[in-house]
Design a protein that fits this description.
Length: about 280
């Protein structure tokens, strides 16, 4: 077909008879995926579709984050730092996409959201089991969160698994200890079900990595990758806070939280505190 007609000719080798074949749609189960958007506002509000798809795509990215973080921890446990860092590099790119997504939801004005917010009932992002599982995987564990999912056995099992297994930082510190870095035994033997808290006695081991990067180049690189990961997570939290503030101001959340004030407090949480503390000591 001529370009003058503004059409592109199909090449002879392109498969057009799709009977009894694996297709793009069947492989991705698009019939299921694209039929999972069910606005509940009546009459249906135009912008509710945006709200649903925004959160559904976030859940898909969270699923991939968990997939990559699980693999990264397994690789660290088997002393394969190189492949683990590849997984973390992918996590960072996913985080970039998730943070940028807030700009789409931010196009929802307060007036528009108010017209269908009441139809959401008590549903809330606070109830996202995958988000909580990612927080647990990175160190922000909280046993009380398990009770939120007590009526959903599958979700409770997912979160309980993350609650009981070592975090990404636990596996990294165990790896560093096997490389003969002076990681205190009380950290290596800590109860991994507890939220990770700062251990000043760990800072000398981290400082050793930063003061001799040529000897510990892979660990040095890993530390910086973990800092990137935490920075990205905090950027996501901040954009969440600002999008909520922009849309509902200081109203309470649909799930019963204080809304923006509750999200603000999340910015005080940390995953890898010694990787930040060491910066005060370097060159001092």
């Amino acid at each position: 077909m001529s370009s003058e007609q503004n059409e592109r000719a199909l090449e002879d080798g392109i498969v057009t008879d799709l009977r009894d074949r694996m297709t793009y749609g069947s492989y991705l189960e698009l019939d299921t995926l694209l039929s999972a958007q069910h606005p509940v506002s009546r009459p249906e509000h135009h912008d509710e579709m945006l709200f649903i798809i925004q959160h559904q795509t976030t859940e898909l990215w969270l699923k991939l984050l968990l997939h990559e973080l699980t693999s990264a921890r397994d690789l660290l446990a088997s002393d394969d730092l190189r492949e683990a860092l590849k997984r973390i590099a992918r996590v960072k790119r996913i985080q970039d996409v998730m943070t940028q997504q807030w700009s789409v939801l931010a196009t929802l004005t307060p007036t528009e959201y108010a017209q269908f917010r009441g139809a959401l009932g008590n549903s809330s992002g606070f109830q996202s089991v995958q988000y909580r599982a990612v927080e647990f995987a990175l160190g922000n564990k909280n046993e009380r969160m398990l009770s939120v999912f007590r009526d959903h056995p599958e979700n409770l099992a997912l979160l309980t698994t993350e609650y009981e297994r070592p975090t990404l930082y636990d596996e990294f510190l165990r790896f560093a200890a096997r490389r003969e870095l002076p990681v205190p035994a009380e950290i290596l033997d800590r109860d991994v079900r507890e939220a990770y808290r700062p251990h000043p006695e760990l800072v000398p081991a981290i400082r050793e990595i930063y003061q001799d990067p040529q000897t510990y180049w892979d660990l040095y690189e890993a530390c910086e990758d973990l800092v990137d990961l935490e920075d990205n997570f905090q950027f996501w939290r901040f954009r969440h806070l600002k999008t909520v503030t922009r849309t509902i101001g200081m109203k309470h959340g649909t799930g019963g939280s204080s809304g923006a004030a509750f999200l603000q407090r999340a910015l005080e949480l940390t995953f890898f505190p010694e990787l930040y503390t060491v910066r005060t000591e370097i060159g001092g």
